[in-house]
């Protein structure tokens, strides 16, 4: 039976091949499609991604160590009917030895121009699925707290004592994707 996570709750993963499914249902009537983008930041002990390829999103669907694979962009929020809109597959056995944490962030594309925020999005969640059995292990559903935010850190995988764990973060931001890239990458963006 899957665990329903609360904000801040942590669990042991205990598996190596999992998927992080992210889903949402846009509120109708804003005049624009809701283009939410799931991203993953593979962070080293200095709290930075070691190279820009360790930022996985719709424009870079595979990490260089082949540990992460992004399913691709859902530009309208219509990829699913109650299921995952974007998925990031994770093979923890392949994660580069420098990586100690993987952050999962969802941002609203062109949120300011489209006057959109998380208060207009319903049923947002992140869930962890066992890639071998297809069974859901845990799920964290966002509450209604994010009325003005345009980005949410849903959760993070982190390594502790050589074991991978997951924390349901639930941290909201009034920022765009560029904010997170500049926060976790100090080199020049080439792509």
TrEMBL record:
Gene3D superfamilies: sav2460 like domains. It holds the Pfam family TerD. GO terms for biological process: response to tellurium ion. This is Tellurium resistance protein TerD. It comes from Mucilaginibacter gotjawali. The lineage of its organism: Bacteria, Pseudomonadati, Bacteroidota, Sphingobacteriia, Sphingobacteriales.
